[in-house]
Amino acid sequence: MGCFQSKNANPQPGEQEPAPLEKPDLANGDGGEPDRVPAFKEYGLAELRAATKGFSTDLIVSESGEKAPNVVYRGRLDGGRLIAVKRFSKQSWPDPQQFVAEAAGVGKVRHKRLVNLIGCCAEGDERLLVAEYMPNDTLSKHLFHWDKKPLPWEMRLRVAYHIAQALDHCNAENRRIYHDLNAYRVLFDEDGDPCLSSFGLMKNSRDGKSYSTNLAYTPPEFLRTGRVIPESVIYSYGTVLLDLLSGKHIPPSHKATYGFLLLSLTFQALDLIRGKNILLLMDSSLDGQYANEDAAKLVDLASKCLQFEARDRPNIKFLLSSVGPLQKQKEVASHVLMGITKATAVPPTILSPLGKACASMDLTAVHDILLKTGYKDEEGAENELSFQEWTQQVQEMVNTKKIGDIAFRDKDFKTAIDYYSKLVGMMPVPSATVFARRSFSYLMNGESELALRDAMQAQVCMPEWPTAFYLQALALSKLGMETDAQDMLNDGATFEAKKQNGWRT
Q: Which residue intervals are annotated with compositional bias (Polar residues) in the record (predicted)?
């Protein structure tokens, strides 16, 4: 199932694309980014509930939404790390100790080709898994539901290779069974590299059987015995190869037809290379942009994987030796091949109370902090309210400000908007605090775009004022623009640190 895709990718205009970096080989301890994958741990239910805003439906990232048998949510921990949280029913895992033990075992498996499991939770009726968050959708989305362009052939070959690498590592770690290997289980990380979800390594063994939830990928032996074996993984790999070749989500009733066709095509390799029969399988959206010989080799490999008898299927080492030589553009980064903008990785930031409140979208806390702060951040700023002669106009501005502040304090945000708007039109010198308060009032009134505009105006008044950045982050989160929101939080934290080190806004 699609577990970790981001619904919103919003690169900054004009952002320069960073050069592709070689990821650390987590399996071999190459180091590199020590914070990339935290150690496996048991999380508290309260922490995961907060991270997902109470398991908000707005944060569901399962491709089937709430209809998915086990719903997956996007979440953010206190330190800023994005996570994916998979929520099972208690009936799926009635024994909490078994669930934790199984998750901890999977959590020990680490590899750069895996979406690594970083934690779990088993409190009361809740059974939750926590994994790395993958921002660039699933293979299913890129193959079957693409918007701008189909997945390039070279990227399809890379997917086949990366999956084989992940399975080979799992095999070496004595995790030889992977459940429900399919296009929904392959996700793309921030670099656009395909990774295999570690969720498929979890087994539900209530009665000693392994359960498959996607009949389109069910191996023949499962239909006979109700169990999967290591060779079943090879069969499922073959069905994924079919998807990569055809670009179509083939229904279960048609899979057998295609499998039979592949078997017959194995004996017609010459015709395949000449391109006479390969069109029966190949994705027409590729418009012939592939080498017939490579396509024929992939077709032949799929046919071997889809053998009815498990003993006739190849092993994982054979998969690697078959798809490895097909990689012809190793030097081209995945995000370049896919045509996606790579987001610059940002380390978790240390936020002030206001920053934390905005990050967690705790509107009550934001309101309290803004009230306590008042206008003191603007002390010393040029403000004609303090210096010009006492006139009727000044008196009117003071009264308007007072009524707006009282309404803001009493949470009468509609009235606050009205009076702050009058004040903005009257003041010779704009006030960052007035814009900030009106921004928050707009948020509370459900007008996120206007809130963002005012927070940006506050930044214009005071270019390095942390509050302006934090309020922009809050508005951006409300608008679903998580990447931009994180950038604003990072900027706010930077200016907060400068301020605490003696720099005056």
A: 1-13
Report the distance separating Cα 498 and Cα 505, nearest Å.
9
pLDDT of residue 495: 80
Taking CA atoms, 255 is separated from 152, 181, 235, 250, 422, in Å, by 23, 15, 12, 6, 67
Cα separation, 75 vs 83, whole angstroms: 5
Residue that finishes a domain, picked among 307, 338, 369: 338
Per-residue pLDDT tens for 126-185? 999 999 999 999 999 999 988 888 999 999 999 999 999 999 999 999 999 998 899 999
State the DSSP H helix or E strand holding residue 123, giving kind and residue range, or none if neither. Answer: strand 117-123
Q: How many CB atoms lie within 10 A of CB 414?
A: 10
Instruction: Return the SS3 of 426.
Output: helix
Q: Which of 338, 362, 390 is the last residue of a domain?
A: 338
Q: Which has more pLDDT, 15 or 358?
A: 358
Q: How far apart are CA 183 and CA 387, in angstroms?
A: 67
Kindly state the tokens that stand for 396: 């009117």
For residue 131, what is the DSSP state? Answer: E
> What total of structural domains would you count in the chain?
2
Lowest mean pLDDT among 45-54, 282-291, 338-347, 461-470: 338-347
Give strand ranges (E) for 159-206.
Answer: 186-188, 194-197
- Residue 274 maps to a domain: yes
The catalytic residues are: 180
Contact 281, 261 (CB under 8 A): yes
CATH number at residue 491: 1.25.40.10
Digit-coded pLDDT (tens) for 200-222:
898 754 443 444 445 445 788 87
